[in-house]
Design goal:
The protein has 2 domains: 3-146; 182-312, Nucleoside Triphosphate Pyrophosphohydrolase (Alpha-Beta Complex). It is globular, with a radius of gyration of 22 Å. It has helices at 3-7, 10-13, 33-40, 70-73, 106-109, 119-122, 128-145, 221-233, 282-286, 302-312, and strands at 45-51, 54-58, 64-65, 83-88, 91-97, 114-117, 157-160, 165-168, 176-177, 182-191, 194-199, 211-214, 237-248, 253-262, 276-281. A hairpin with a 2-residue loop joins strand 4 and strand 5 (91-97). 24% of the residues lie in helices and 28% in strands. Strands 1, 2, 3, 4, 5 and 6 form a 6-stranded mixed sheet that branches. Strands 10, 11, 12, 13, 14 and 15 form a 6-stranded mixed sheet that branches. It has a 3-stranded antiparallel sheet with strand order 7-8-9, with no helix packed on it. By secondary structure, it is an alpha+beta fold. Bound molecules: zinc ion (ZN). The site of zinc ion has 8 residues, from loops.
Length: 314
């Protein structure tokens, strides 16, 4: 059963961009080396290369994921075996890190319109399944590159479970590490017919967005929502409700989306964090055009979905 069939909530049924759509991760087969090798060395394997956090994409009429075959891996010097991602439509998907090679990697780029591109530039116009696969490949590769050495004793680690854990080679230490994500809360704060949008210095020109911040040790997600909003705009919240979440492997976050009601309108923006923060009505936000002085977040972001859902409730 898919999650969408399980929840029964219409707002939960459509998934956020970069979330798993149709892929079967087959986590229970990761330790079955013979089964994994059979999948890898078959004509139905598709291998996604990642080069320095960029994804191989065909840039013809539309942006589509470009794959390597297991034969094409033979000529490459790989640092680790391909990571098993899962199965989709009768194909088995793997990814490999090619960051140690210098571009151009002629085998992948000659003759056709293939190029290594930052997924953030094109993910929003790709098919959801392909955007998910490239996000997954990029995210897990990022984790591997930063966990070559054990964080406990400093010795080398080895890859296990078809790329889904690393174990310290020091037998006395034997620490196992699993791919990790950094949880961040993102919240649409409303009061009556208004929501809070804020602008930080790092945002693209004119963009205003809902408030967000990283979870800290010892906090619940709801604690994090309340703390971040109070720190950033000085507002207390009530009715804090979870909405949905989004993998955001740029480089390694999980965005956990909430909606909450403010108990007042009195904003005190934190000048270190924000350039501005204001209340906006539905009418103001619906009137935004590409020429307006305010722009909403990109369409593939959970921030935009939280805003669009609220606007649609008018
Ligand atoms: Zn160790």
């Amino acid at each position: 059963m898919r999650l969408s069939e399980f929840t029964g909530d219409s707002l939960m049924n459509s998934k956020n961009f970069y979330a798993t759509v149709s892929l079967d991760r087959q986590a229970n087969r990761r330790s079955d080396t013979a089964w994994i090798n059979g999948k890898l060395n078959s004509q139905k394997s598709r291998i996604l290369p990642v080069w320095r956090d960029q994804s191989l994409v065909s840039t013809g009429k539309s942006f589509t994921a470009a794959y390597l075959t297991h034969e094409s891996l033979q000529s490459l010097e790989l640092k680790d075996k391909p990571i098993f991602l899962g199965s989709l439509n009768d194909y088995s998907y793997f990814c490999v890190d090619l960051s140690h090679l210098d571009l151009p990697i002629e085998e992948f780029q000659s003759g056709i319109d293939n190029d290594f591109i930052d997924l953030r530039q094109i993910g929003g116009v790709m098919s959801p399944d392909e955007a998910n696969l490239l996000a997954y490949a990029r995210g897990i590769n990022y984790w591997h590159k930063r966990n070559v050495y054990c964080g406990v004793c400093g010795k080398l680690t080895i890859v296990e479970e078809s790329g889904h854990q690393r174990r310290c080679k020091n037998k006395k230490c034997n620490t196992i590490q699993f791919p990790r994500t950094d949880s961040a809360c993102i919240v649409l704060v409303h009061n009556g017919d208004k929501i809070i949008l804020a602008r930080a210095d790092r945002f693209p020109p004119k963009m205003q967005s809902v408030l967000a911040g990283f979870l800290e040790p010892g906090e619940s997600l709801e604690d994090c929502v309340a703390r971040e909003v109070f720190e950033e705009v000085g507002i207390h919240l009530t009715d804090i409700h979870y909405r949905h979440s989004q993998p955001w492997p740029f480089p390694s976050s999980l965005m956990v989306g909430f909606r909450a009601r403010a108990v007042s309108f009195d904003l005190r923006p934190d000048e270190k964090e924000l350039v501005s923060a204001d209340w906006f009505t539905r009418r103001e936000l619906k009137a935004i055009t590409p020429e307006s002085d305010i722009q909403l977040p990109r369409k593939d972001s959970i921030a935009r979905r939280l805003i669009d859902e609220w606007l649609e409730e008018d």
